Amino acid sequence: MPEVEVPLEKWTGKVNEVRLGGNGRQAVVVGGEATFPFLQFEGAIPNRPAVAIEVLDVQPTGWPSQLAAAWGNVLADPALWAKKAAEYGADIIALRLKSAHPEEGDTGAEEAKKTVDKVLAAMDLPLIVLGPEVAEKDNIVLVAASEAARGQRIALGNCEEKNYRTIGAACIADGHVAIAKTPIEINLAKQLNILLCDLGVSPESILMDPTTGALGYGLEYTYSVMERLRLACLTGDGMTSMPMICTVGEESWRQKESKSDIEVPATWGELEQRALIWEEMTASTLLNAGADIVVLRHPKTVEAIKATIDKLMG
Amino acid sequence: MALTGIEIYKFLPKTNCKKCGFPTCLAFAMKVSQKGVDITVCPDLSPEAKEALEAAGRPPIRLVTIGGDKRKIEVGNEVVMFRHEKTFYHPTGLMVRIKDSAPAEAIAKVAGEVAGYSVERVGMELALDGLALENESKDAATFVACVEAVKSKADLPLVLMSSDPAAMGAALEKAADGKPLIYAATKDNWDKMAELALKHGCPLAVHEAAGLGELAQLVEQINGAGIEDIVIDPGAHGFAQSLATLTQLRRLALKKSFRPLGYPIITFPGESSDTVEAEAVLAAQHVAKYAGIVVLDHFSPSMAYPLLTLRLNIYTDPQKPIQLTPKIYEIGAPKPDSPVCVTTNFSLTYFSIAGELESSGYPSWLLVADTEGLSVLTAWAAGKFDAEKIAKTVKDFNIAESISHRSLIIPGRVAVLRGELEEELPDWKIMVGPPEAMDIGGYLKKMWSA
Amino acid sequence: MSRFIATSAIQGAHAVFNEAEQLLAQAMEKLGPDTPVAFPNTAYYLPVIYSFTGHKVERLKDMAWPLEHARALLPPVPQDNLWLPYLGETLDSGVATLFAEEMIEGIRFALGEQPEVRNGFTYNGPIDDVQMRSWGIQMVDGRMPGFAALVGVAKSNEVAVKIVRELQSKGQLIFLCGNVNGRSIVDQLLEEGVELGYDTFTVPFGSDTISAVYALGYAARAAISFGNVAPGDFRQILLYNKFRCFAFVLALGQVDDLKYATAAGAISYGFPVMADTVIPNILPTGITQYEHVISLPFDDIPGKDDLERAERLVQRCIEVRGIKVKIAKVPIPVAYGPAFEGEVVRRDNLQAEFGGKGGLCFEWLTMKDMDEVEDGKFTVVGGDLDAFEEGAKVPLGIVVEVSGRKMQKDFEPVLERQIHHFINGAEGIQHIGQRDIAWLRFSKSAVAKGFRLKHLGDILHANFHNQFGAIVDKIQVTLHTDKAKVQELIEQARVVYQERNVRIAGLTDEAVDTYYSCTLCQSFAPNHVCIINPERVGLCGAYNWLDCRAAFEISPRGPNQPVPKGKVIDERLGEWEGVNQFVYEHSGMNVERFTIYSLMDSPMTTCGCCECVMVIIPEANGVMIISRDDYSMTPCGMTFTTLMGTVGGGMQTPGMMGHGKYYLLSKQFIPVQGGIKRVVWMSQNLKEELGEELKEICAAAGEPDLLDKIADASIATTVEELLPFLEEKGHPAPSMESLI
What we know:
Chain A is an alpha/beta fold. Helix content of chain A is 41%, strand content 16%.
C-alpha cells in the first residue's frame, strides 16, 4: 500500500483570542485558531465560532414578511427582542443603533445610552453595539453606548479609517473591543489594525469586519480577503491576527433574492426556502473562510448554523 | 517548481508553425506555463523535450471529462489551494441523483426538470451539469430502463451508479456514447469495472472509504490496468470529515504531487444531511472546498439557484472580475420620472449600487457602461469611463425614450466629468451623486425630483 | 539648563513641600488621621501621586508615604559657589512640587476648602472622570488638539480675552489658574463677561499656582484611561503625555519660584513652558518634543497692537508644542466639495479669467523657514476680482509659501500639483493646468456671492493643513495681479521649475539608498509589490519616487513604504538584499528574487494596471512594447489583454514585464538587455506621445534614427512581417547579444 503522508503546514502564527462579556455577564471567547477553519487535524481550534443575532433599536421597516413574522411583536422593543434572541440560542447580541441614522430618527447619545442599558438588563449575553454607519453619528452614539456599558466588555463597531480614533478611544477608556471595518482589501484591513494599535487599543481588543456582500453580491471578495487575512495571520503577521466578524444577516436579507416573490423568475424557486438558504449559505461559506462571529437575522438560520458549527467542530 | 514561459520556449521548435493553435511558439509557451494548455498539443516536440516538459508540466490534478460531444463537463486540473493564488479553473459539476427504484413518472419528471433548469445571473446562464443514476433496485433491467428513460428526457452528462459490473455493463451498452462516469470501482469489483471503462472509453470513479492509503492503492491498481481518467470518492461524510479529507487530498496532489490521488473528487452531501437546507449548505462547502463533482439528492430551484450562484462566485477569476452586460438595468419598477444613474460594468460596483438603489425606495434606471469590467475610479483613470463614454452609453441605450426628464446622476468619484458631460449631453442636467454607493439612498431623498 | 531656573525651581519646591508638610500635620491633628481624602467624582485617588507611584491616598494618613517620597526627591538648594548640571535635580524637584501641591489640594478638600470660592465665583477644582473621559476621547481622536494651561495674569483684560478666544478657535481645551500679586486671568475673563466652564472648554481650577496640579492630574488620568498605562508606571505615564497629549503651559506675568517649580513638573510630562515675560530660554530638546522653555516677552512680539501680539503668542505656543491644525470647513462664500471638481465656467457666466491662451498666470509653491511664514496670512497684491470689468483677462501669480518641521524641498512639486485639485473643489471656479500654464476662470455667481482672490488662500490653507498636515505646519499665500510683478515673479518661478526638472532628471538610483514600495494593487494582485526607484516610475505611471517619499511622510502606515536597498548582490542586475527581503515578505513569500534592471532575470511582477507591457520577441532578438490603449495584435502573437492575462497578477514572468510609459525615457531602461536599442516594436500612440523625447534617448544611445527602425501595428502584427522590416531598416537588435 502506498504510504500517504498528509502534508501539514507549520504555521507560526495564530488568531488572537478575544473575550467579550464576562464580569457578571456570560463570556464568549473567539479566535485562537492555529490553522485554517475547522482543520483540526493540523492545529488547535480552541474556540468555536460564535453566532450573534442582530437586534435593531427601531422596528425594522422593509423586512421580508417571513423574517418579520419569525420575530413577531418583539421587533418593537429591542430589550424583548434581545431576550427572545437569547432564547433562540444566540451566543451574542448585536445591537444596531439604527435610529441614530439621520434618516431613521436621528436619535442621539441619550437614547443610545437608554437602549444599551435596557438591552444589557434584559439578558446576560455579551453585547455588540453597531452604529448607524454615518461617521459623525457613530461617534456620538457609540461613545454613549461605550459609557453605558463600561466594564461589560462589549464590542463597538464600526471603526473605519475616518472615525477609528473616537471609537478606539472609547474602547480603551471603557475596556471594550473595537470592530475594525474595511472592505475588500487586506492591506487596508491591516493598516486599520495598526492604526488602532498605535492609538493604544490592544490587539486582543480588536475584531475585523471584512464583510462586503452576500452570496451573489461580492461574496467571493470577502471570501478571498478572509482567506488571505488568515493566511497572513498564520504565517506570523500579528497585525492580521484579529478574529473576524461578518454581518451576514444584514447583507443577505437586503437582497432581492431574499425579499421578493413577485417580478422574479420562476427559476429562483420558492421564496421562503431560497431566502433561508441564502442566509445560511452566506454564513457557512464565510465560516469556512475564517469567520469567528457571524451576525444573523432569522431564528431558523441561527438554528441551522449552530448545528453546522457543531458538526464542523466535530 | 513550475517552468517559466521562457524556459518552456527554449524546448520548443521555434518555428511559429501555428499548428498548436497559437500564433507563436512564445505565446504557446506562456500558456503552457500557466497550465492553460498541455505541452503535448505541440506536434513537433522532440522526444527529449517532451519528456522534460511533461514531467514539469503535468497537471497535479488530472483533468477529467464527463459526457459526450454535445454536453460535457471538465473537472480537475486545479493548481491552487486558495482561489486568490490564481483562480479555480474548472467549476464543480453539480448533478442530481435519480434512483432507478423510483416510479417512472418521478424519474422522468426530475430528469426533465434538471435538464430544463437554467437561471440567468449577471448575463450568464447557470445550469446544472448532469444526473447521477443509481441502481438502487439492484436489478440490471430496471437500471437500463431508468437510463433509457432519463436519456429520452435529458441530454446531460451522466454518472452511472452501480456496484454490479453486470448491471453497469448493460447500462453502458445504452449510454456509453455519452461517456458517462462509471461509479464505482471498489476493491471488490475494480477489475471488471476497469474492463468496462476501457471497453467503452469512459471515466471511472474509484470508491474506497477505508482510508487514503487504501484509496491510493486501489487507484494504482486501476492505473495499472491502463486507466487514467479517474474520479475518486474517499467516502467522506459530513461537514468536518469531508472538509478534512478533501483538503488533505488537494494538498497531497498540489504540494506532494502525489499521483495516485491527483484526481477530481466526487461527493454526495445529501447522504449525511437531515434537511434540504443542510444538504445545500454542505454542497456549498464542497463547491468551495475542493470537490470536482457534487451529487445532490434533492432538486428544487430554491436550492439550485443559491448553489449555482455560489459556484459562480467561487469560480470567478479573482483577477478578472465578472463583467456585466452593458445595458439599462431596471431596479424595482422604474417609471418615466424615476432617477437615472450611470455606472461601470464592474460587477461589484454594479452590485453595491443596485443593492443601495433597491433598498432606497426609489425605483431607478441604472445605466451600465462598458468599462471592460473596471470599477469607477480605475476605469476613469484608464480613460474607459470618460464623458464621451458616458454620453455614448446614454445615447446608445436610448434611455431618453423611457423617461420624462433629462437628469443624469453620475458617480461622485468622477465629479470632474461634469463639465465635459454638459457639453457632450447639452440637453441633460448632470447631477453629481455621492462618492460612496452607501449614500445613494440619502442622496436621492435630498436631491431627487424629476 | 539654566542655573537661574534650576535654583528658582528647587527653592520653590522646598517652599511648597514645607507648606504641604505643615498643612498635613495641622490637618492630622485637627481632623484625625482617618479623615477621608478625595477629589470628587474620580476613581483615581490623588491622580498625580497615584499614577507615578500606584499609591492610593484615601485618608489623611495615607499621605505620609508620598510626603516622604517627595522629600527624598528634593535636591539641596544650589549654592552660589557650586555649579552642577541641574536638569535631573530640577525635574525631580518638579515632581516633588506636584506631589506637595496635590497633597495640599487633597487636604483642602478634607478641610472643606475646595473648590475655591473667591469674589463670589466658585472655581471648578479638579475635572471629574466623566468629563475627563469625554475630553480624553476627543484628544485621542484628534478633535481636540490638546490643552493649554494659562497660569498668572495677562497684560490686560483685552489680551486675556484675545488669548482665550484664539485658543478656543483652535479647538484647545483651556485650563486657568494662578495669579500675579493677587490678580488672576480668571478675574480678567470674568470682568469681561467671558463664560467659563466645561461647555466653553475653559476650566478655572483655582486662583493660585497650586491648583495647576489639577492639569497634571488630568493628564495622568488620561494616560491611565487611554494609554493602557498601569498606575505606578511613571515612565510610561510621562512618555504617553509627551507623545500623545499636546499640552503646554503659558505663564502670564511675572514668574515666581513656585511657578518655576510647577513648570519643572510640567516639563517632566513633556509639556513645554512658555512665558510672556523675560526668563531664560531652555532650548535643547529631549524631555519635551521640541523646546523646553521659551520666553516670548509680550511687548517684543511683532504686531501692530496688543491683540495681534496676543494672536502671535498663541500661534507660537502651538508651533512649539507641534500641534497640528485641522480646518473643518473651508471658509469661503461658495460651496466647496468634490462635486464641483468637474464644473466648467462658460463664457456667458465668466466674471474674470487668469491665464489661458495669451494670458499670464502661474502657481508656485515654495518652502520657507518656520519664522518666515505666518500661517493663514493671505495677501492680495493688485486689484481683486471685483475690480475688473466683466470677462476680463488678468495676470495672476499664486505664490504659496509653506513651512513645516518635516517639510522638504523635494516635496514642493508634490504639494504644488495639489493646487489644481484643491481650487477646483470650489463652486464657480475652474482651474486648468499647473505651473506657468495654469488657467483659472471665475464665474459671475461666485464673485456675486463674495468670492475674492483671498479665498483661494483659504482653500489652499485649509486643504494643505487637512491633507498634508504631516509635512506642512504653516501656509501663507500671496496673490499677485499686478502685471509687472507677475512678470517678474513668473521668471523666478520658471527658474525654479527648471531646477526641479533638472533635479528629477538627476535623481538617480545610485544617488539614493532607499527605494519605495507600492502595495496599493494587492487588493486584486495579492502577491504584487511595485518597487519604485528614482529611475523607474510605478508601472501604473501614477507614482514616482518622490511621490512615494511624500506619501510615506503623510501616511507612515500607508502603501508606500521605504525599502532600504541594503547590501548589493549584483550591481549590473540591480539586485539588493534589502529589496529582495522586502519583496519576499510582502509578496506572500512568493517572489524570492527581484532585480530592477533586467527583463529576463527575476523582473518586477505586474499587478494589472500597467500602462505598457514589454515582452521579448525571441525571433528578432528584441523586445516589443504595447500600450494599454493599443488594441491591435502584436508580433508576439498576443494582444494587450492576452498579455495581461499572462503577466498580470503578481507572478514573475521572465521575458515579460509591465511598466509605466515614461520608463521608456529612463536612463535605466532595461540596461541589462541593452536599453532602448532592444525595442523592435512599439505601439503607435507611444511613438506619437513620446516622440521628441524618445528621439533624444535614441540619439543618446548612438542610434538617432532608431525610432524609424522600430515597427508598429501598421507595419507588422506578426513575426513574419516584423523580421524583414527590421532587416531592411538595419535595426541593431538582431545583431546584439542573444536575449535568451
